[in-house]
Write a structure and sequence with these properties.
Elements lengths: L6 H4 L4 H12 L2 H4 L4 H13 L10 H17 L1 H4 L21
Helix pairs in contact: 2-4, 2-5
Length: 102
């Protein structure tokens, strides 16, 4: 039986910075904004370092969980989350919801 490694092991102890970098790379935002990969990685590590490793809940792993859910929602439902910023290529199964300003 195959088991998955916990996020802190799969990311070598850096779940938030690893996931943040992965999502920025996957969505093409590193290239789109002309970000320097090494500087970005260092910046993400500094953000992650601000989380206490001793905190039982609000730690870097929890922050990575929140980042994953937020990124999933933004990519899955852009018309619902950002109704005034939708484009033709970002249509979803929520197209029946009006996206016109009130």
């Amino acid at each position: 039986m195959h088991t998955l490694n916990p996020p802190w092991q799969a990311s070598n102890g850096h779940p938030l910075s690893a996931l943040g970098y992965f999502l920025l790379q996957k969505t093409g935002l590193i290239r789109a904004f002309g970000l320097h990969p090494l500087r970005l990685a260092r910046w993400l590590r500094r953000i992650e370092a601000g989380y206490s490793k001793r905190a039982p809940y609000h730690n870097a792993t929890h922050a990575a969980d929140v980042l994953q859910v937020c990124s999933w929602a933004c990519l899955r439902w852009p018309a619902v989350l950002f109704p005034h910023h939708t484009t033709a290529h970002h249509t979803t199964h929520f197209d029946h919801i009006t996206t016109r300003p009130p």
